Every structure is written in C-alpha cells, then in structure tokens.
C-alpha cells in the first residue's frame, strides 16, 4: 500500500479549507448584492405632515427595485389604534403598466403611476379622526416575495393653528371645475382639478416634488 506523507496531507487540508472559505465569501457577497438591490418603499425625506381640518392631503409613497418588478402588490392601511383599516390595494403586472387598483374608502383617491414608481394616494376632506399613522406596503414576487413598508404620519390641526405667509405671487386657473384645500410638505395650497390634471393656487411659499406630479401646470394672473 502506498504511503502518504504528512506534508501532502497538510497541503490537501489547507486547500480544502481555502475552498470552503472562498465559497463562504461568495455566498456572503451574493447575499449582500441581493440585499442592496431588494425592493424598497419610501414616503420621502419628510415622513409626516401637519394638515388643516377639512383639507385634502397627499400621502406619498414610491417604490424601487434594482432587478425590476413583476406582479408587484401594494396596499395602504390606516393604523386606527391598533386596528389596521385597509384603504386601497393594487397590482402592477410589470414595469410601465398602470396598476389595477381597488379603493375601500370613499375619501381616498389613488394618484400614483407605475411610470414614476409612484403609489401615492390622496385623502380628501380630512377630519380629526384621520390623524395617525398610514402604512404603505409593497411585495415583489420577482424577488421571492420580498416585501417592504414605510410609515407616514398625519397630524390634523384646527385652521386657527395654521401659520400662513403672504405669497410673492398668486396663481390661478382659467377653468376651475373642482377645488379644495390641499396640504403638502407643511404648505397650504388651493387645488383645482380639470381633466385629471392638478392645478395649484398656493396661499404660501411652497416646495412641490415634481417627480410625484410631473403633469402640473401653472397659470399666472396675466395668462
């Protein structure tokens, strides 16, 4: 029988240990890449808003995935003192295809679009009972049903508590068919809706994320 010296066994053992180490590092790297590229939802840099009683608020939410989506499912819930009240839900078959949305609340309107990865909603004519946490949730079957959620907090205040500033310019629309108070990022505006396009008449200085509403148009007093 051939003999195997201790040096050969030692070298062989080190090779096997090295192979296992490299395999382990490869798995860790793959998991890290998967984690970085996974589905995420976000309510933006500002995760809360203070809105006036009787106004309409935007509850913002966007999603992102480095590997894309397929049959993405999303929903909105209101945390009513521990009871989760579903406001709406929808499914996006693939990127660029508009979602099929079901709304379960008469004052909720879906205003998102898959073209901008936007699954935001409007909450009309808010009351003090609407104050609380709103959860935006999404699940992506393309990522083995990976899911993620984000929370947006709404605080409702009386009109007398709102501090307004005189605007430098006043905007309006020539054709105004429906109007309501609209609150976004702590700024109070007047919204006019015409043919599914949102026109704003700000009553204070404002910052408006163009990414959420790319079709906004403004008319100055001279137009």
UniProtKB/TrEMBL annotation:
Per UniProt, subcellular location reads as: Membrane
Keyword Magnesium attached: no
What's an example Gene Ontology biological process for this entry?
Answer: regulation of ventricular cardiac muscle cell membrane repolarization
| Ranges annotated as spanning the membrane | 20-39, 188-208
Stretches assigned to the Ig-like domain: 39-153
Q: Which GO terms describe its cellular component?
A: voltage-gated sodium channel complex
Topology in the lipid bilayer: Single-pass type I membrane protein
Any one GO MF term held by the record is: sodium channel regulator activity
One matching Pfam family is V-set
Q: Which InterPro entries does the record associate with it?
A: Ig-like_dom, Ig_sub, Ig_V-set, Myelin_P0-rel
- Principal localization reads membrane
Q: Which UniProt keywords apply?
A: Disulfide bond, Glycoprotein, Immunoglobulin domain, Ion channel, Ion transport, Membrane, Signal, Transmembrane, Transmembrane helix, Transport
> What is the protein name given in its UniProt record?
Sodium channel subunit beta-4
């Amino acid at each position: 029988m051939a003999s195997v010296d201790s040096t050969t066994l030692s070298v062989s053992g080190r090779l096997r240990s090295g192979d296992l180490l490299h395999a382990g590092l490869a798995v860790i790297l793959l998991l890290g890449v998967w984690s970085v590229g996974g589905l995420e939802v976000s309510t933006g840099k500002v995760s809360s808003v203070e809105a006036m009683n009787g106004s309409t608020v935007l509850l913002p939410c966007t999603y992102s995935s480095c590997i894309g989506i397929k049959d993405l499912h999303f929903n909105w819930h209101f945390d009513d003192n521990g009871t989760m009240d579903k406001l709406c839900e929808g499914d996006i078959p693939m990127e660029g295809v508009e979602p099929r949305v079901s709304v379960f609340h008469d004052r909720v309107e879906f205003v998102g679009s898959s073209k901008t990865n936007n699954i935001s909603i409007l909450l009309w004519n808010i009351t003090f009972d609407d104050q609380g946490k709103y959860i935006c949730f999404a699940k992506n079957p393309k990522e083995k049903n990976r899911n993620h959620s984000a929370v947006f907090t709404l605080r409702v205040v009386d009109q007398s508590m709102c501090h307004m500033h005189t605007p430098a310019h006043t905007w309006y629309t020539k054709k105004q068919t429906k109007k309501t108070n609209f609150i976004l990022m702590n700024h109070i505006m007047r919204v006019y809706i015409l043919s599914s396009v949102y026109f704003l008449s700000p009553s204070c200085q404002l910052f408006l994320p163009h990414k959420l509403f790319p079709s906004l148009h403004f008319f100055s007093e001279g137009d």
